[in-house]
Amino acid sequence: MKDVIESMWRFRRVLYSSTRTELQKRYAGSLLGPVWPVLYPLLFLSAYLFLWMVVIDVRFPGMGRLGYVMYVFCGLVPFLLLSESLTAGVVSIRQNIQLVKSVIMPLELIPVRVVLVALSSHLVGLALLAVMTSVNGSLSWRLLLLPLIVALQAAALVGGAWIAASLGVLLPDLSQIVNVAIMLLMFISPIGFTPEMVPPRFQMALKLNPVSYIVDVYRGVFIAGHHTPMLSLVVFSVLCPAVFLAGAWICARFKSVVVDLE
Fold first, then answer.
1. 220-244 per-position pLDDT tens digit
2. How far apart are CA 56 and CA 86, in angstroms?
3. What's the rounded Cα separation, in Å, for the pair 38 and 181?
4. Fewer CB within 10 Å, N or C, the chain?
């Protein structure tokens, strides 16, 4: 497990170059090119807002339209990072196994690269959120905590990508399962609604949903007057490094098995 973690530092230049190349390939040949990292979260946000503001017609007492947009966006931005990291991470090793067999890139760096690529769009979403916060006049010192929060979430997603990628080689159907699970997770997470709107008999589902704690922490940074409960802070602070370490352990255990199977 220690070797898996240390390899990120030893091969940091390889990881940086590989991530930059992957970002260039992603938008190569497209008409809009580098505009997509900005356009994609905006289109996704617009579709989600249309669902909750027009179709379902959700209204929060005492909260204007901009306040509701910020509330939803604070949930969607970290959720999009989670979604892209896990859905791409589960197939990352299987799709790049030749890089591993050719000893071009250590196996454990491939899922890390997936998370770094996803972070590029995430940073765009965070910039949009910061602009909205400034327009809303709710900038505060808590914004200084954002780099720490992003680092903790990224660490958890690296661990999750290690787990998903390792099991994805052993279980080819896992990619379809993860895609369906992510889609369901979006609708049962408090992104477009508040936890208080959920009936008491379903409150336990929110408490077992890790996305609830992630979005709660983000809202505490960007939304004035939103006080993140201590439980959310503790769970978020403990869960992120725990998932990272668990992912490193599983990746180390499955590393030789994964290469042999392929």
1. 998 877 888 898 999 999 999 999 9
2. 28
3. 26
4. C
Q: CB under 8 Å to 173, separation ≥6 — which residues?
A: none
DSSP SS3 for 129: helix
Does the pLDDT of residue 32 top 70, yes or no?
no
Contact 37, 121 (CB under 8 A): yes
Burial of residue 245, with CB atoms counted within 10 A of its CB: 0-12 exposed, 13-18 middle, 19 or more buried: middle
Residue 87 near residue 61 (C-beta atoms within 8 A): no
Of 183, 177, 185, 176, give the one whose Cα is nearest residue 208: 185
End-to-end CA distance of the chain: 22
Long-range contacts (CB closer than 8 Å, 24 or more residues apart) made by 171-177: 172/94, 174/90, 175/87, 175/90, 175/91
Helix axes 174-188, 146-170, angle to 10 degrees: 140
Q: What gap in Å lies between CA 239 and CA 216, rounded to an integer?
A: 14
Question: Which two tokens mark 67?
Answer: 């306040």
Show me where the domains of the chain are located: 2-261
Give tens-digit pLDDT for 116-172.
Answer: 999 988 888 888 888 888 877 777 788 889 999 999 999 999 999 999 998 888 888
| Of the candidates 157, 165, 150, the residue with the CA atom closest to the CA atom of residue 90 | 165
Distance CA 78, CA 240 (A): 13
Amino acid making up residue 155: A
3-state secondary structure of 173: coil
Q: What pLDDT sits at residue 43? A: 79
CA separation for the pair 37, 84 (Å, rounded): 13
